[in-house]
Amino acid sequence: MGRFEFYGPGLTAVEPSDLKGKLVVVEGADGVGRSTHIGLLREWLESNGHAVLDTGMTRSALAGKGLKAAKEGHTLGGITMSLFYATDFADRLENEMIPALRAGFVVLTDRYIYSLIARATIRGANPQWVKGVYEFALKPDIVIYLRAPIDELVTRVVQTSGFNYWESGMDLRLGEDMFDSFIAYQGKLLTVFDSMASECGFNVVDASENIQTVSERIKALLEPLLVQPCPCRPT
Amino acid sequence: MKVYGKHRVPGRLFVVEGIDGSGKSTQLALLHQWLASEGYGTCFSEWNSSALVRDVTRRGKRKRMLTPMTFSLIHATDFADRTEQHIIPPLKAGALVLADRYVYTAFARDVARGVNPGWVRNLYRFAVKPTIAFYFRISVDEAMKRIIGGRDAITYYEAGMDRQLSGDIEESFRLFQGAVIDQYDRMVDEFGLVVIDASRSIEEQQVQMREMVTRALTGARKNRIRRWVDLNSTAQASRP
């Protein structure tokens, strides 16, 4: 096999050729609809006979709660936050994603190292440093990058969860209030993401279309990756 | 973000390194006492003490959830918080910061656990380079005598029990800490660690430390807070 590889030195206890599953990353800004599409994908994959594990930031057994608690306070520095996320990510990679890949699951992950690298870079982290930190990550099979212009993100955020301190990058003091800050912060993120998209070969999907259309596009991108589980499947 | 060796601060950073039982904390406490009595503004920072991260580390250790990678990352997170909150600001203010264990602890332990040496060195690149890093060198046997004779029992991770080197905790400690000492010894030249022979008397070691620290203090600020006692004596001195 040898399909999987690490970005750098990697995890010594893991033999990438043992990993039979697929690693699917969904990236995109806050409010772009990542969780909606992951939900739809999961349904579709399972009805086609694929076992699915879905995971996302701050969901690790080790560091999830601690990280959320740290974000409630006012003393969390940029480097500390980056490394807290890296801990959370490593725990999920080693204890959720890799075992699932070994067992042949399709792993759907809501964000991956790209979001973490982008956020850290915007907060002034040395880009080489933060990329180096994530060298233990597996290269995914595919990265779906859901992209929408900022004015659309704003509309969606206002209609759903409302502006949030961290999603607006309020710690960076980029604007007078959450709205100004959201625009400035998400704008910076988009720029970083767009450059990563070409550098790392993301599959860009225009998320401003309606949900059905976007979902069909994502499925079309995934189809070539998936082996049919049952050759006698009715067509 | 400034990287190792690039911070320009008026303060001084003195760190102590070595395995458990090497006596480094005793030496640092004596140094601290002396510097404070000389009128320097001092701050003390200890490994694994970040209020934001400590609970996660503790729980991870208690439940034995940590892999070499997450062990390394959670300690780096703790260290980052202390660097951002308790090390860089006082150094910028011209204080003397004293650290019990520093990045070299992570380099020694994590590499002994099988983590890639280059990766862990990059992980800690945000650290301030110490003015002096003292390494208290001791043999595993001597350290074991001191630990077993005294305070705490050997802990699971400190003994490297997660590496399954031996089912016996003392034997595992001996093997794992032996590997940690090898890593420390390799770092002496790489990072210019100042080796202190930890088998010498406490007084002899302290004299050696103070001599080196004194040389590094030229130009350092004495910023002791003027308390009422000082004001009182100032008032008396100015009386005709």
Strand and helix map with partners:
The complex is a heterodimer of chains A (235) and B (240).
Chain A: E1 22-28, H1 34-47, E2 52-56, H2 64-72, H3 78-102, E3 106-110, H4 113-122, H5 127-133, E4 142-147, H6 150-159, H7 178-200, E5 203-206, H8 211-222
Parallel strand pairs in A: 1-3, 1-4, 2-3, 4-5
Helix pairs in contact in A: 1-8, 2-3, 3-4, 4-7
Chain B: E1 12-17, H1 24-37, E2 42-46, H2 54-62, H3 68-92, E3 96-100, H4 103-112, H5 117-123, E4 132-137, H6 140-149, H7 169-191, E5 194-197, H8 202-216, H9 228-238
Helix pairs in contact in B: 1-8, 2-3, 4-7
Describe this structure in words.
The complex is a heterodimer of chains A (235) and B (240). Chain A is an alpha/beta fold and 235 residues long. Chain A is built from eight helices and five strands, in the order βαβααβααβααβα. Chain A has a single domain (16-158, 201-225), classed as P-loop containing nucleotide triphosphate hydrolases (Rossmann fold, 3-Layer(aba) Sandwich). Chain A has helices at residues 34-47, 64-72, 78-102, 113-122, 127-133, 150-159, 178-200, 211-222, and strands at residues 22-28, 52-56, 106-110, 142-147, 203-206. Chain A has a five-stranded parallel sheet with strand order 2-3-1-4-5, with helices on both faces. In chain A, helix 4 packs across helix 7 (178-200). The relative contact order of chain A is 0.18. Chain B is an alpha/beta fold and 240 residues long. Chain B has one domain (12-228): Rossmann fold (3-Layer(aba) Sandwich). Chain B has nine helices and five strands; from the N terminus they run βαβααβααβααβαα. Chain B has helices at 24-37, 54-62, 68-92, 103-112, 117-123, 140-149, 169-191, 202-216, 228-238, and strands at residues 12-17, 42-46, 96-100, 132-137, 194-197. Chain B has a five-stranded parallel sheet, with helices on both faces. The N and C termini of chain B lie far apart (54 Å). Chain A binds chain B through residues 8-9, 11-13, 61-63, 65-67, 69-70, 73, 75-80, 82-84, 86-87, 90-91, 94-95, 124-126, 129, 132-133, 135-136, and chain B through 1, 3, 50, 52-53, 55-56, 59-60, 65-70, 73-74, 76-77, 80-81, 83-85, 114-116, 118-119, 122-123, 125-126.
